[in-house]
Amino acid sequence: MVVSLLPSNSTAFELALEEATDIASEIGPAIGAIHGLKYARPLNVTVAPWLVNEYGLGPISDFFDTIEDLIDEGRVWQRLRGTPQAITTSLSWIDYDDIDIQDQVRGRRRWHLYQIQMGELPGVDEIQRLTNAEYLAGLSDPARSFFWRGHFGYDVRGHVYGRSRWGRSIWGDSSGVRIAGGRVKWSHGRTHELDATAEAGVAADLGVDFADGDDVTWLGSLTWAAPGLTWGGVTDARVLKSWLMLQKSAHIGLYDVDGDPIGYARVVRAVQDITDYGDTEDTVVLAYDATIGFGVASGEVAYAAVVFGGVAQGVAPFKTWLDPDQIDFPDGEVRVGESPISFTFLETVRERIVINLTI
C-alpha cells in the first residue's frame, strides 16, 4: 500500500501527478537488497573499496590476502585501537603470536614509553618484519604512548638507581640497535652451544699432551704456578692440561659452507667444566664462550671451531670481532673441534657461541 505524502486538500491533478512520478515500485527491491550488503560473503567487488574507505582500513590493507579478511578483522581492530589488545591483534598479522607489552617502570619521567617482548627472533626477513612491527604498533597504540624498544633473547635494561644492579644493566641506555629509518630499538639474542672433540694430534701441537707420570723437562710454557706437576713429573695431567689451555689466547672461528673464514670472535670466557673431566683419565672439557655484537658480521655460517695462534692486526686491542684480514697467525692456525652449525647473521641479533671442547 502506497501512502500519500500530500496534504488532505490536494487537488486531483496533484494526486495524479504524485502517483505518476512514484518510482518506489521500481527501486524498492534494490533498496531492500542494500540491507546487509556489506556483510554478504562473497563481498560485492563494486562495494568493497567503499567499505574499506568507510572503515578507515586503507593503512592496513597490505597485511591481508583477501578484502573480506581485511574488513572482518579490520573492523574488530578499529574498535580496539588505543588499547594493548589492538597492538596484540595487529602484530598477530605478521605472526607475532606471543608478545608481552611492558609499560615503563613506575616513577620514570618518560612514563609514556613502552617495550614489547616479541616472543621470537625476527627471522631472515628481519628488516621488513621489524619495519612492519613498528608501523602496526604505531597505528594501534594510544596517541599518548610510544613504542620505543622490542626485545627477545637478550634484554639488558638501562641502570635505574636503587632499582637495578650494576652488573645487570647499562649506564644510561638499554641494549639494542635501530634499523635504518626506524625509531624503535631492537635487542635480540640467541645462543649456539656445541659439543666438540679435539682431533688427534692437536694436544701435541698445542703443547699440552701430558699424561700422569710423564717426566717433565723445562718448558717455556710451564711456570712455578703450574698445577698438577712436581719435580718428579706430572701428577695430575687433567689439571695441568686445563691450566695450560686456559693460558692460551683463543678465538672462535666461523666459516661458510666452503670452509672459508667469515670471521673470528674473541673468546671472552674460557673455563674448565669441573662436572665433566672427559672420557679418559687424561682428557678434560673446556667451555669456550664468545659473543658477536649487533650488526658487526654478515653471512651464512656453516662451521665453527676453537682457533689458537691468532694475533689481531691493525685494530683496537681486545676487539671482539675480527674480519679475516684483521687477524694473523704467525705460527700457523690451529683449528680445533670444527663442528657444523647453521645460522645467518642478522642486524639486530647478538650471537653467543659456546663450544664445549673435549681435549
UniProtKB/TrEMBL annotation:
Looking up InterPro entries in the UniProt record yields: Tail_protein_I (IPR006521)
Organism's domain of life?
A: Bacteria
Give the protein name, as stated in the record: Phage tail protein
Q: Which organism is it from?
A: Shinella sumterensis
